[in-house]
Design a protein that fits this description.
Purple Acid Phosphatase, chain A, domain 2; alpha/beta; 663 residues; 17 helices; six-stranded mixed beta sheet; 5'-nucleotidase,  domain 2
Length: 663
């Protein structure tokens, strides 16, 4: 199917009623105060958002092969039904990252495939719920453009993206040859407080992070280009107003980040919301919920009012954990509508009671039915054994000690790259391997850790070890650049005063996927030193020197010595802004994903030994004690942690457990 035919299918200007579920559910339905108070000429409009679903239709953890009440569109669907019943008028929108992120997504992409006319299970589930529109997230591109277009062709709702162009960018945004329409206008009917029906024009405009050009360069280089989010909005929103939009809603697959604009911000929702003509903004990408305590004191954000740059905004969690909700009280203003009141909420599908997860809503059977066959096929797929492990694989201590879940990734990458480069000009260079923990608690919660028992290893376990469909790359860098790579990784630790008592060790703003451990060298991390780089890769202190005793084969690393470092396309392409690591350092781009390499390594070895080799540790800090949070099951593995003294330190927040390290 040609691109234009896809676009014509995806983006009709639709006309249907917005009338909600009050009449259908009867007088007993609880209604929102805006619906209750609306008079003649006033109307309550409810905007509902899902974001970062990552193929989670079922309340099921495929990695752990067990139900999980914190996730699933089938659960969120029950909130959608409830929320529609509370409002006179409503629309449902998706904010991107629906296509990749769990084994069901991989099963469809790598095993079943997508032919023209096939319906993807996440889209089938979304079609059940009657979405009104959506946009693309960065993970939509992980399987390639052809796959993505086959998937979204099955959506019964329009998809928009204003900053993704074919080939190269034009002289100005309105001349860009876009893959999707930049916006759509929904011509709808809305009911006011007196029961009278009126016309309303709602514009939807969507945006994707420009960083997809780095993160998925293998699919997009030469085929696509991205424009700055704010610049694209400034070009298109006035046109939407000229075409008679009463409301403009921005679907921003971009986090709530800096207030000040800078070219090609990844998290650009604050300056985007400030663009004149945008009335409300849906955000995502960061896997957080807004309004929420994480956003207290953030510049440009009013967490109490639920506004971003003064506009109503929301971020609806991830994996279906919340439904984003913006309520607008509208009032007739001549021949158009204006907003006279608003509120925002991220409504959860579960809560924690006495450290246990309690589901707040049931599954919606129709949503389950839409993906039942693919769910069962995914279970069979992930349960397929590929080998054995002689020791447990877990990531409970991945941020504080050398770790078996990282060790096995590095072993597989080293094995693969050594073989791939054996006939090249780099065959005589020593091979190191960089890997980071993907499942290390954090925003994923107290159960978000790799935990594989000794014995059989199935595909689900490999997917658990390596969450993303990255491909293997190799870079050639110097010993000095190896040290800077590690200095960047060491930014995950807070600075600790010598002899301190129970200081917080981990900088929670530093993502665990940027905490690279480099295998093949040995080193210590001195946390009494300040961090040299920020979590964004900015130089903080040029004199900082956290990495101590960096050695190769028992000798200090020569700053000028060259090394091959096995990594992934994200890091090799500059992802994470590691100093000196950029595409010009890449000497090998593999056709294989890191996960496939791990599977092949396990099959080759038959039985693997993933025990950590203790190649890194903390430098002494005068007997300081530090605290860190991890999953409660970590205490079962304390005896297997090498090179660091760890002891339990009680319960942490939100189901985590606290542990103490003496340095």
């Amino acid at each position: 199917m040609k691109d234009q035919r896809i676009l014509d299918m995806l983006h009709p200007i639709s006309r249907r009623s917005l009338l909600g579920g009050i009449a259908a559910t009867g007088a007993l339905a609880l209604v929102h105060p805006f619906s209750a108070r609306a008079n003649a000429g006033q109307a309550h409009l409810r905007i509902m958002e899902t974001t970062d679903l990552h193929v989670h239709v079922f309340a099921y953890d495929y990695y752990g092969d067990k139900p999980n009440d914190t996730m699933g569109l089938a659960r969120t669907a029950s909130i959608i039904d409830q929320i529609r019943s509370e409002a006179q008028n409503s629309i449902l929108l998706d904010n991107g990252d629906f296509l990749q992120g769990n084994p069901m997504g991989d099963y469809i992409a790598y095993e079943r495939g997508m032919k023209e006319g096939d319906l993807h299970p996440i889209v089938a589930a979304m079609n059940v719920l009657g979405y009104d529109g959506g946009t693309l997230g960065n993970h939509e591109f992980n399987y390639g453009l052809d796959f993505m277009f086959k998937v979204i062709a099955g959506a019964n709702f329009p998809m928009v993206c204003a900053n993704l162009a074919k080939g190269t960018l034009a002289a100005n945004p309105q001349e860009d040859d876009l893959f999707l329409k930049p916006y759509v206008i929904l011509d709808r009917t809305i009911k006011d407080g007196a029961g009278a029906e009126h016309k309303i024009r709602i514009g939807l405009i969507g945006f994707v992070p420009p960083q997809i050009m780095t993160w998925d360069a293998r699919h997009l280089s030469g085929n696509a280009a991205t424009r700055d989010i704010v610049r694209a909005a400034e070009a298109w929103v006035p046109q939407m107003r000229e075409e008679g939009c009463d409301l403009v809603v921005a679907l921003s697959h971009s986090g709530i980040g800096p207030q000040a604009w800078a070219e090609n911000l990844e998290n650009a929702s604050v300056p985007l919301a400030a663009v004149p003509g945008i009335d409300a903004i849906l955000t995502g990408h960061s896997h957080l919920d807004f309004p929420g305590p994480k956003f207290d004191g953030v510049a440009g954000v009013d967490n109490a009012k639920g506004t971003i740059s003064g506009k109503p905004g929301v971020m609806g969690g991830f994996w279906g954990s919340h439904l984003g909700l913006i309520d607008l009280m509208l009032e007739r203003d001549g021949n158009s509508w204006k907003i006279v009141g608003h509120s925002s909420e991220a409504r959860p599908i579960y809560e924690r009671v006495d450290r246990k997860v309690v589901a707040l809503v049931p599954d919606k059977p129709e949503v389950l039915a839409a993906a039942q066959a693919e769910h069962e096929a995914t279970l069979a797929y992930v349960r397929t054994a590929v080998g054995k492990t002689s020791a447990p694989l877990h990531s409970y201590f991945a941020l504080v000690a050398d770790d078996p879940s990282i060790q096995i990734v590095s072993q597989a990458q080293t094995w693969y790259i050594t073989d791939m480069l054996k006939e090249t000009q780099w065959k005589d260079l020593p091979v190191l391997s960089a890997a980071a923990p993907f499942k290390a608690g954090g925003r994923g919660g107290a159960d978000y850790y790799t935990d594989v028992a000794a014995g059989d290893i199935a595909i689900k376990n490999v997917a658990d070890l390596y969450l993303y469909p990255n491909t293997v790359q190799a870079v050639v860098i110097t010993g000095a650049e190896v040290k800077e790579w590690l200095e960047m990784s060491a930014g995950i630790f807070n600075q600790i005063a010598p002899g301190a008592t129970d200081a917080e060790l981990i900088n929670t703003d530093f993502p665990s996927y940027n905490f690279d451990v480099i295998d093949g060298v040995t080193y210590q991390v001195d946390v009494t030193q300040p961090a040299k780089y920020s979590s964004k890769g900015d130089l903080l202190d040029g004199q900082a020197n956290r990495i101590q005793n960096l050695s190769f084969n028992g000798q200090p690393v020569d700053p000028g010595q060259e090394f091959v470092v096995a990594t992934n396309n994200y890091r090799g392409g500059g992802g994470g802004n590691f100093p000196g690591i950029a595409p010009d350092k890449v000497v090998f781009e593999a056709p294989d994903t890191n996960r496939d390499v791990i599977v092949r390594y396990i099959i080759d070895q038959g039985t693997i030994n993933p025990s950590a080799d203790g190649n890194w540790s903390f430098a002494p800090a005068g007997g300081a004690t530090v605290l860190f949070s991890t999953g409660p099951r970590a205490k079962e593995f304390l005896d297997n942690v090498e090179g660091v003294a760890i002891e339990p330190a009680g319960d942490g927040a939100e189901g985590f457990a606290l542990f103490r390290i003496t340095l």
